[in-house]
Amino acid sequence: MEQARAGDVQGAAARRAATFVRANAEQALSVDDIAAACGVHVRTLYRRFAIEYRLTPKRYLRQYRLDRIRAALLVAGEGATVTTIAVDHGVTHLGRFARAYTLSFGEPPSATLRRAMAARRVVRACRNAGRKEARTTAW
Questions:
Q1: What predicted TM-score, i.e. pTM, was given to this entire model?
Q2: Long-range contacts formed by 120-126: CB under 8 A, 24+ apart
Q3: Does residue 4 sit in the same domain as residue 69?
Q4: d(Cα 86, Cα 90) in Å, to the nearest integer?
Q5: Which end of the chain is more exposed for a tag (fewer CB within 10 A), N or C?
């Protein structure tokens, strides 16, 4: 019974750490920072992350950032750049970021941004064509 309770407490620490990562992902975080914020030792944090998420804390942070960057690229406005979006999300090495992004999503970040921008242009053109057609159609 005591072991089950200890596991629950440590599992809660891993969930607190994940919440901390999500709230502070734009910051330059180390595993030591995450462990300290959750009040656990680094080794405990690694062990609990392996059990709860099947990832290391650093890998969890990296994947969370990549997911956030992808979401930002998909909704970015005209004039947005991959560099600006990546740096805004805490990326410090653009080459490593681009490689990790491509491995995670199967396309470079520039392709995601280009595709999202093209899709918005098509939607905008269709809306404009629909408005023009509505004005010229007499019922």
A1: 0.78
A2: none
A3: no
A4: 7
A5: C
